[in-house]
Amino acid sequence: MAKCSVSGCIVTHDNMRTIGTTLSTLLSCTQGVDFKLYIVDNLSTDGTIEWIRANYGSDPRVEILEPGTNRGFGAGHNLVLPLLTSELHAIINPDVVLREDAVAAMADYMQTHPDVGLLSPRIRFPDGRDQVLGKRDPTLRYLVASRLRGSGAPKKALREYAMLDEDLSVPCDIENATGCFMLVRTDLFRELGGFDERYFMYFEDCDLSRTVRRTSRVVYFPGACIYHVWGRESKKNSKLRRIQIRSMFYYFRKWRR
């Protein structure tokens, strides 16, 4: 039986700190599918693309794209749309780690559930703790709860946002899939035109999830797990915080929330 064809795309920008682990684990843990990886570099200046080219430039599974500009996360991912011939396509952050063939497990699930357009895995910190991530459409109340969360147990609004009071031990429909790692049907991704490029960063995953739901299901699948470093850079970097706020306002205007 032929393996499912899966493409993946990583958009990099100064990710030298994490990209080595991401690429080594991703390429070693995708043996159960026919895998092709595209790497789009958004003008890295820290040696990221030079390191990738030196270590993976001759790997037939890897194709490197250097557009010579940085138009943002979604626009970077959209560059590969004309190149895709796969059945399924993975959106992958440059700071994730695989410890098992999560891609094959997700592909198997989507092949047996043709009504699912987008699949989100279980996402944990490298130390094994589950990340508290929004699974419902974002609202201002949910976003404030997420921003103000301390080190204690999540309060009511954040529990609602992350669906923590639902049974997350089994696959379930969700409204919002996190963009650090998601698997989408390639034909659907192409039909939708990829990400809305008016988001430079942030909220493009919420937007894509919502758009997919017009015609297909978006599902959380705990049968596959990936590990995400998740530095929450927008809490530390004022420029990224401004970008995040602009994206938030655009999202709410677009969806009239």
Notes on the structure:
The chain is an alpha/beta fold and 257 residues long. It has one domain (5-137, 165-232): Alpha-Beta Complex (Spore Coat Polysaccharide Biosynthesis Protein SpsA, Chain A). It is built from 9 helices and 9 strands. Strands 1, 2, 3, 4, 5, 6, 7, 8 and 9 form a 9-stranded mixed sheet that branches. Helix 1 links the parallel strand 1 and strand 2 (34-41).
Derived structural class: alpha/beta
Summed up, the helix count is 9
Q: What portion of the residues fall into strands of 2 or more residues? A: 15-25%
Using the coordinates shown, work out and report the CATH topology: Spore Coat Polysaccharide Biosynthesis Protein SpsA, Chain A
CATH class: Alpha Beta
Tell me, briefly, the overall form: globular
* Topology as a string of helices (H) and strands (E): EHEHEHEEHEHHEEHHEH
Helix content: 25-40%
> How many distinct beta strands?
9
**Which residues sit in consecutive blocks of at least 5 with pLDDT less than 50?**
none
Termini, distance in Å? 46 Å
For the sheet with most strands, the description reads: 9 strands, mixed
Mean pLDDT: 95
Radius of gyration: 17 Å
- In the CATH hierarchy, the architecture is Alpha-Beta Complex
CATH superfamily: Spore Coat Polysaccharide Biosynthesis Protein SpsA, Chain A
Domain module tally:
1
